[in-house]
Amino acid sequence: MASGSSNSALCSYAMSPKHRILSLTADLIQARFPEPGADDRSTTRLMPQEEIAARLDAFLAEHGPEDLWILAYGSLIWKPNLDFAERRMAKLFGWHRRFCIWQRRWRGTSASPGLMLALDRGGSCRGVVYRIAAPVREKIVDVWEREMIGYAYHPRLLSVQTEGGMVMALTFVVNRDSGRYAGQLSDEEVADRIAAACGHIGPCASYLLDTVAHLEELGIDDRHLWRLQELVAERLAR
Predict the structure, then answer these.
(1) Measured between alpha carbons, how far is 223 from 189 in angstroms, rounded to an integer?
(2) Which is higher by pLDDT, 186 or 4?
(3) Considering the domain boundaries, does residue 9 fall inside one?
């Protein structure tokens, strides 16, 4: 796996104050959730493998045989699972990062659902884009399944600004009709859910911590997520 970003390119998109200390820590989360939660399979509808593959084939037929850019704004930043040829800092206009997807499995349960990030309409979002060298199908199949299996996202090709110019990037935006769309909850409501939720792959708070920590490393100042990590830390420390 390779990265195509230079230090100067990273600095050109750096906005976050340096050396900020997160209130949310792994120790706080571990104290609240010493063990993983149950694997609650009762309420999450999964897309059949044949449908996942068919949708990928249809997308690639529309995209064509050239290299593919993929936008990362959440877990794809710190867990890309991609064989990429280049990485750039990026900014998407018209969409913003928000905890707006109910998570009743993986990092939550039906009794105590968590929330996951998606892109919702309005505003803008800073992240990174990965360039996947053609042929791309086998290189993105794992990420495609990971994002599509729960019906929570729509794949979209959107224009993204990078330090090397505009690119068209595959972007996974919220599917408001999936039954998992949580709408625009208040920060306090989101923090309550994140602080209380844990599924079989771990606590929802760990997902928030990993995302905020990696955004900080990249110099990306997301004031909304920074505020959320403070609120979740307060709840876990009680």
Answers:
(1) 17
(2) 186
(3) no
- List, for residues 91-107, the tens digit of each pLDDT value: 999 999 999 999 999 99
Q: List pLDDT tens digits, range 38-53.
A: 898 877 899 999 999 9
Residue 116 in any domain: the answer is yes
Structural domain boundaries, residue 173: 38-237
**Residue 22 within a domain:** no
Residues counted in the chain: 238
* Residue 70 lies inside a defined structural domain of this protein: yes
pLDDT of the residue at 18: 65
Please tell me the pTM assigned to this model: 0.90
Query: How remote is the C-alpha of 53 from its chain's centroid?
Result: 21
Q: Token match 């969409």: residue?
A: 95
Quote the CA–CA distance of 87 and 162 in Å, as a whole number.
10
Domain count, the chain: 1
Q: CATH code at 161?
A: 3.10.490.10
What residues have CB less than 8 Å from 50, skipping those under 6 apart? none
Report d(CA 129, CA 125) in Å as an integer: 12
